[in-house]
Amino acid sequence: MSNSRSLLRAVLLLSLAPALLGLPAQGHAADNKVVVVTSFPKDLTGKFKSEFEKRNPNVQVEILNKSTSSGLKYVQETAKNNTSDIFWASAPDAFEVLKGDGLLKKYTPKVTGIPEKVGAYPINDPDGYYIGFAAAGYGIMWNTRYIKAKNLKPAKEWMDLAKPEYHGHVGMSAPSRSGTTHLTVETLLQGEGWDKGWAQWKELAGNFKTVTERSFGVPDGVNSGDFGFGIVIDFFGLSSQATGFPVEFVYPTVTTLVPANVGILKNAPHPQAAEAFVEFLLSPEGQATLLDPKIRRLPVNPATYSKAPAGFPNPFKDKSIGAAVKFDVDLSKRRYNVVNSLFDVMVTYRLDDLKAAVRAIQDAEAAAARKPNNAKVAALIKEARGLVAATPVTEAQAADPKFSSIFKKRRRKKTDVVPQRQAEVEEQWDAFVTKNYAQARAKAEQALSLAR
Amino acid sequence: MNAHWGQRVAALLIAAFLLLFLVIPVVQVIFVAFQAPATGAFTLVNFQDFFNTSLFREAFWNSLYVAVMSVLVATLFAMPLAYFTTRFEFRGAIIVQTLGIIPLIMPPFVGAVAMQLLFGTNGSINLLLEEWFGINIPFMEGLNGVIFVESIHYFPFILINLSAALNNIDRAMEESAQNLGASGIRLFRRIVFPLAMPGYVAGASIVFLKVFDDLGTPLLLNVNTLLAPQAYLRISSIGITDPMGYVISVILVLFSLFAMWIAALALRGKDYGTEQRGGGGLAKRRMRPWEGILSYGVIGLILLLVLSPHIGLTLLSFGTIWSFSVLPDGYTITHYLEVFEQSPQFVTNTVLYASLAALIDVTIGTAIAYLALRTKIIGRKWLDYTAMAALAVPGVVLGIGYLRTFLGVHLPWSGEPLSNWWVMLVIALSVRRLPYALRACTAALQQLSVALEEAAENLGAGKLTTVRRIVVPLMVGGILAGFVTSFATAAVELSTTIMLVSRESDAPLAYGLYVFMQTAAGRGPGAALGIIAVVIVGVAAYLSHRVIERGHKARGLADEY
Asked: B328 to chain A nearest CA, in Å?
């Protein structure tokens, strides 16, 4: 018995031995480094790190890779005792939260030659707390093997994806999970108007296979061939293609170019290195780094495009990219969380109900097309469509600061008062949409049986 | 009976550990659940909202359904594997037992990709089925998909604990039953299985709780009408401060404790202890030839099914491009080269963190099991329940809690915040994985007759000596089972890790996986890193099985003298 005990001890020691030799070294808190919290992939951060260190041999870049939401929480929680210098991510909403919490430091870059807007979106925060260093736009990517096997045509516009033949072939992330997805949803809402915009989103979502939990889940699914079409940000599509996956990417007419941002944190332990890092991102060398095939983001300095390979989209020259919609940033901000929450209640959490209703409508329409001129059938289908399209919140309500405070109010003072609880509101919406989806499905099925 | 002073000190130390590293950090985060959103005053209105929300009620029933079904399916996988390899002469038993642990390590993200490529709507299996028979089976869709993946993923908990328990059964029990005319299924149902009940309940209750509280699999399948993903999605969305995420976390913890209590009731009032430990001097049973062929066949099929994600992962790690096809387009070793070139510290850090965490877990697990079962110290059950509650706490909540609690505390030698020190990562991992080790240790002690300890004490041994020389050596099978499960699951933990890692040189493998899986080009290296994790855990599991086996042999020899 003591034999087995000593063996146990031996095994435990053995399993520890290699690790003990490789004990993580304790880094020294040196002045000559810059700590960057980022959600960007290694392909991007690694390249910028090495280029920056080449030019600033005394400064070491320490990259902390975290998802946008955990990076944000990390910065918020460590603020009292901040050890990070820079927050570097795509989602403008994350920067808005940091700015609202007073965790960013105002900084005006010294670099010149960068215009005010890319497409219709302002590049820098008007208040000067965060700075755009690259741009990206949303579009559609598809798997060529998939569409060949399923006999589908490439979809070029958002609403192409709402056609019945694409049912179950589309994937997207939720706007509450990804700031850039949010801007795509908002772009369509602004381009088409609140009611029509939501009706279109739900028609489109009725064809979804899935709503992925993280934004990278979409290119992942298209690359694997799990679903054929993905609504993704350009560099996901372009870098997948560069890796060798059988995929293609296109910008629809209605898209918004969104800046990817960088901000210096308040009380940054290495402020000079942090400023140098931001300046490098905006410098001609830094901007040119964006053209790397593994990175492929759109530079914000128009001059850099002269070095771009042929076929590289240039939003400063090609006005068709990202210019169709006059993007109202203030409106977007006012209803930010309402839109997120509404999308989750209407689409993400009730996707199966929505899909069933939309499928039933598509079937009824197909049957009606074979036997036209049946007024009753047409009326039922119209009613069903109306039920799916209906939104429990009006545009005015969504932008009402009092209403939207239910969703984002973080109580800072004891006297802050919020009128209603998010859970109450969401339950009302949920009851509204589940009832509508069920009724829409019933009406569409009725129409189908009449049309047969 | 007065508790021994050593027991009291141990109980206090453990209570302090749990308070400091579990209760306080978690309370720092989830107190929001008890705050009125409008005024910030104490309230239970959020809980009322929970029960008034049809989505949450639905999610609750879905979670319960998925958890119960997963236990049933996991039992079907685990039972034959455990029974045949422990109670019979079975060639390759160690290999089967080792392979049976592998499914527990589903590396985050890459595991999901591999599963989709195999079992997805357009995965290899369905592409073949469609070509041959024109059918498509939705393995990975909806609640049934969750049950399928969860049972493959977590059945090793039952396998490991049931095997440890079966190994401990005195061979003489079976022999007596056989002499009295019992055989086959009846022998198993009436004698062997009831004696192994503590191990089965330990494993089944972990599977139940783990599935009920699990986040990874539902997110992998994008099924969000379950409680844990609802909590996670609400806690981790940007900018929204919805208390419901924390309310759901509290409900998960309470329900998990309730389920634990039910499991404890199931075992109460029965005595599972035997004086003689398994194996003993008697030979294991032999199978008749046709029985042998049948059982190898069954085991082969089960292993093929449960290891298929890892077969997929292996293909992914060696594959070039794998898209909408049965197999990858070509094969290469560059992914492995890339991993070794870029990030060798991921591997060493992981081995260090996971072994330290598992070591802490079995130490505390053994101590809590002993205190709960062998002493009358007040609050002993609460140590058990509190430690188990860790299972229901979402990793992101624990991570935020650590930042809130330990950021203000500074290390005396470097002045750095305590939360940035890699040791805190180890402690967080050990807290998250303690429930596994604790259940394994408890089951092992339940099977140990208290008469042996009484005998030792009658012969003059003190409490400490008895624990050291009698109890722990006899529990070694269960302790190792706990070590392996804690180690395996700690090696791929992500949600707390990503919150706490404060510099890349301290990061474990799961962080590396996350970083790779952010880009299309990172899929291959990510899979390679995942396979490395699998190999590390496989080696650890194999070694511990060798230890158990040697222990049996040594004891068998000793008994023959």
From this structure: 10
Give the nearest chain B residue to A337 (CA atoms): B240
Asked whether residue A5 carries a pLDDT value surpassing 80, the answer given is no
- How far apart are the C-alpha atoms of B462 and B127, rounded to whole Å? 66
Please say if the pLDDT value at position A386 is more than 90.
Answer: yes
Q: Is residue A406 part of a domain?
A: yes
Cross-chain residue pair B120–A224, CB shorter than 8 Å: yes
pLDDT in tens, A251-305: 888 777 888 999 999 999 999 999 999 999 999 999 999 988 778 888 999 999 9
Query: Hey, of A152, A421, A426, A434, which one would you mutate to test binding to chain B, going by the most B CBs within 10 A of its CB?
Result: A421
Best of A12, A341, A405 to disrupt the B interface by mutation (most B CBs within 10 Å)? A12
Q: How many domains does chain A have?
A: 2
Angle at B376 between CA B370 and CA B382, to 5 degrees: 70
Same domain, A361 and A452: yes
State how beta strands A60-65 and A247-250 pair. Answer: unpaired
Domain ranges of chain B: 5-324+335-560
CATH class for domain B5-324+335-560? mainly alpha
Q: Is A151 left (phi over 0), alpha (psi -120 to 50) or beta?
A: left
Alpha carbon separation from B437 to B152, B430, B479, B485, B541 (Å, rounded) = 20, 10, 7, 7, 14
Cβ separation of A226 and B476 shorter than 8 Å? no
User: Domain for residue A169, yes or no?
Assistant: no
Region at B200 (left for phi over 0; alpha for psi -120 to 50; beta for the rest): alpha
Collapsing DSSP states into helix, strand and coil, what is residue A284? helix
Q: Is the pTM of this model over 0.90?
A: no
Q: Quick one: A290 and A341 in the same domain?
A: no
- Contacts of residue A419 in chain B, CB cutoff 8 Å? 38
pLDDT digits (tens, 9 = 90+) for B261-292: 888 787 776 667 666 655 454 457 777 888 88
Contact at CB, A5 and B38, closer than 8 angstroms: no
Amino acid at A20: L
pLDDT, one tens digit per residue, over A188-241 is 898 889 999 999 999 999 999 999 988 889 999 999 999 999 999 888 898 898
User: Hey, are the CB atoms on A7 and B502 less than 8 Å from each other?
Assistant: no
Contacts of B515 in chain A (CB under 8 A): 41-42, 65
CB pairs under 8 A between A and B: 280
Residue B476 contacts A where some CB pair is shorter than 8 Å: yes
- Average pLDDT, whole number, for chain B? 85
Question: For residues B414 and B502, is the Cβ–Cβ distance under 8 A?
Answer: no
**Phi (first) and psi of residue A257, to 5 degrees:** -85, 130
- Tell me: pLDDT of A445 over 70: yes
Residue B499 forms contact with A (CB below 8 Å)? yes
DSSP code, position B2: P
Is A246 in Cβ contact with B321 (below 8 Å)? Answer: yes
Residue A288 resides in a domain: yes
Q: For chain A, what is the mean pLDDT?
A: 85
Q: Which one-letter DSSP state was computed for residue B417?
A: B
B482 backbone dihedrals φ, ψ, rounded to 5°: -65, -40
CB within 8 Å: A19 and B514: no
A337 chain-B contacts, CB cut-off 8 A = 239-240
Q: Where are the alpha helices (DSSP H) in A216-350?
A: 217-224, 234-243, 271-282, 284-289, 329-334, 336-343
Residues A339, A429 within the same domain? yes
Give how far A205 is from chain B: nearest CA, Å: 15
Compute CA A379 distance to the chain's CA centroid, rounded to the nearest angstrom.
Answer: 38
The answer to the question of residue A195 being in a domain is no
Question: Residues of A with CB below 8 A from B279's CB?
Answer: none
Q: Do B554 and A91 touch (CB under 8 A)?
A: no
Instruction: Verify that A374 and A271 share a domain, yes or no.
Output: no
The b-or-e profile of A62-96 (16+ CB within 10 A means b, else e) is: bbbbbbbbbbbbbbebbbebbbbbbbbbbbbbbbb
